């Protein structure tokens, strides 16, 4: 089920949490609403769920209006045919696993035999069939979150909303659960809107990321698009680490040559997508630099290692270069000591140019 939000506004007093937001979340996909605290992502989710009332605009679920300020439409949450999974597991401690999962159906006065069948089917989907008769409080954190997901699924919602559902789990369980959510979505073909502030979680789960900032979406697209082809500086800096420095662009022999601004130091040249004008902000991801041994100052960009930080699978080098301090990522097994002299090279396709200025 697709979700269309048009010109939505939501204010809390003088604070505008959502500022004229217009986005479409695609049917059958995992759309991740990503951003820092207070950016508007959770408020957007709660407005779609009917837990918050926008001050203006329209929300449609599969082209059916569930909220419209102009037409006076505001369906209550229970009539929007959606399910929601919160940060808290919210399991009832006095009930078994199947008792927890069946609670929404009992509230709807669904016949007992139908409840039994649908609960069993849903527990099978989330891999909890063998835990059905156990107390929900005796399950692990990951299993309790699966109970809350099953409780959401048992009513066959056309849309699933998840508000930071993994934030209470430890690091290992978070990885396991996001893999399970991805596999679950692929099995049932659900439309999922997933709110998180965790970049790695967003990148690994999303079909499409919506990066929020100050009540607006700065950029939407695939994880690869936002990481390698950010539209603005905010996106480049929010997702991962980025080396940013001003450059001058020159046409040379049918190619675009990129020089450090205010110098004749050539960074690279090639068939490069360039913004208008002869100046731009160059973005290079730390892992895109290629490291070689320094041979005088003639090979690549000369650099001196200031600090080498070992983080397991990779080593982060902070280096000093003629274009300023850069961050370089190399495999963890490669050793570098402070003071080592290296050279850095970059392929033209590993560079992204932004119209921004420093």
UniProtKB/TrEMBL annotation:
<dbReference type="GO" id="GO:0055052">
    <property type="term" value="C:ATP-binding cassette (ABC) transporter complex, substrate-binding subunit-containing"/>
</dbReference>
<keyword id="KW-0067">ATP-binding</keyword>
<dbReference type="InterPro" id="IPR017871">
    <property type="entry name" value="ABC_transporter-like_CS"/>
</dbReference>
<dbReference type="InterPro" id="IPR027417">
    <property type="entry name" value="P-loop_NTPase"/>
</dbReference>
<feature type="domain" description="ABC transporter">
    <location>
        <begin position="3"/>
        <end position="239"/>
    </location>
</feature>
<dbReference type="GO" id="GO:0015697">
    <property type="term" value="P:quaternary ammonium group transport"/>
</dbReference>
<dbReference type="GO" id="GO:0005524">
    <property type="term" value="F:ATP binding"/>
</dbReference>
<dbReference type="Pfam" id="PF08402">
    <property type="entry name" value="TOBE_2"/>
</dbReference>
<keyword id="KW-0547">Nucleotide-binding</keyword>
<dbReference type="InterPro" id="IPR013611">
    <property type="entry name" value="Transp-assoc_OB_typ2"/>
</dbReference>
<dbReference type="InterPro" id="IPR047641">
    <property type="entry name" value="ABC_transpr_MalK/UgpC-like"/>
</dbReference>
<dbReference type="Pfam" id="PF00005">
    <property type="entry name" value="ABC_tran"/>
</dbReference>
<dbReference type="GO" id="GO:0022857">
    <property type="term" value="F:transmembrane transporter activity"/>
</dbReference>
<dbReference type="InterPro" id="IPR003593">
    <property type="entry name" value="AAA+_ATPase"/>
</dbReference>
<dbReference type="InterPro" id="IPR003439">
    <property type="entry name" value="ABC_transporter-like_ATP-bd"/>
</dbReference>
<keyword id="KW-0813">Transport</keyword>
<keyword id="KW-1278">Translocase</keyword>
<protein>
    <submittedName>
        <fullName>ABC transporter ATP-binding protein</fullName>
    </submittedName>
</protein>
<dbReference type="InterPro" id="IPR008995">
    <property type="entry name" value="Mo/tungstate-bd_C_term_dom"/>
</dbReference>
<keyword id="KW-0472">Membrane</keyword>
<comment type="similarity">
    <text>Belongs to the ABC transporter superfamily.</text>
</comment>
<keyword id="KW-1003">Cell membrane</keyword>
<dbReference type="GO" id="GO:0016887">
    <property type="term" value="F:ATP hydrolysis activity"/>
</dbReference>
């Amino acid at each position: 089920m697709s979700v269309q939000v048009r010109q939505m506004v939501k204010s809390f007093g003088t604070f505008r949490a959502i500022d004229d937001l217009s986005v479409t979340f695609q049917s059958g996909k995992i759309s991740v609403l990503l951003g820092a605290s207070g950016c508007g992502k959770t408020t957007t989710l709660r407005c779609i769920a009917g837990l918050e009332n926008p001050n203006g605009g329209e929300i449609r679920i599969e082209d059916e209006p569930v909220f419209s300020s102009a037409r006076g439409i505001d369906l209550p949450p229970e009539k929007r045919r959606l399910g929601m999974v919160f940060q808290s597991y919210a399991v009832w401690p006095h009930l078994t696993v199947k008792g927890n999962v069946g609670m929404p159906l009992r509230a709807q006065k669904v016949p007992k035999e139908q409840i039994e069948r649908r609960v069993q089917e849903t527990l099978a989907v989330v891999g909890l069939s063998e835990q059905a008769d156990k107390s929900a409080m005796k399950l692990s954190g990951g299993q309790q979150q699966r109970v809350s997901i099953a409780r959401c699924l048992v009513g066959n919602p056309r849309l699933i909303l998840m508000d930071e559902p993994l934030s209470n789990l430890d690091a290992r369980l978070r990885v396991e659960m996001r893999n399970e959510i991805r596999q679950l979505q692929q099995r049932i073909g659900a439309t999922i809107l997933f709110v998180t502030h965790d970049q790695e979680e967003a990148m690994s789960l999303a079909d499409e990321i919506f990066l929020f900032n100050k009540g607006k979406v700065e950029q939407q697209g695939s994880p690869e698009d936002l990481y390698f082809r950010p539209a603005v500086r905010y996106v480049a800096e929010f997702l991962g680490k980025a080396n940013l420095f001003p450059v001058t662009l020159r046409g040379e022999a049918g190619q675009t040559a990129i020089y450090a601004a205010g110098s004749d130091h050539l960074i690279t040249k090639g068939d490069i997508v360039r913004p208008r004008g002869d100046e731009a902000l160059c973005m290079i991801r730390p892992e895109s630099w290629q490291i070689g041994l320094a041979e005088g100052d003639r090979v690549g960009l000369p650099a001196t290692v200031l600090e080498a930080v070992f983080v397991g699978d990779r080593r982060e080098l902070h280096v000093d270069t003629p274009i300023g301090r850069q961050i370089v990522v190399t495999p963890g097994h490669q050793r570098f000591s402070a003071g080592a002299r290296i050279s850095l090279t970059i392929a033209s396709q590993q560079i992204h140019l932004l119209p921004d200025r420093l």
